[in-house]
Amino acid sequence: xxRGLKCSECHQPMYADKEDYQPKGTWVVYVCRNGGCxxxxxxxxxxxxxxxxxR
Length: 55
Description:
The chain has 55 residues and is mainly beta. The chain has one domain (14-53). Helix content is 7%, strand content 44%. It contains one helix and three strands, in the order ββαβ. The protein has a three-stranded antiparallel sheet, with no helix packed on it. The longest helix has 4 residues, at 38-41. The radius of gyration is 12 Å and the shape is elongated. This is Ogr/Delta-like zinc finger protein.
């Protein structure tokens, strides 16, 4: 499960949309969930894909 991330535009929590589990960790795609964020209003919510290493 994703550890969490904040949107770089509105600084609100993002949710993990997709998770791809790998032997050394997980690729997670985070998407902004704030309806007031400018990126959401434009119709293209801010997304970020990061690799989270296994603990």
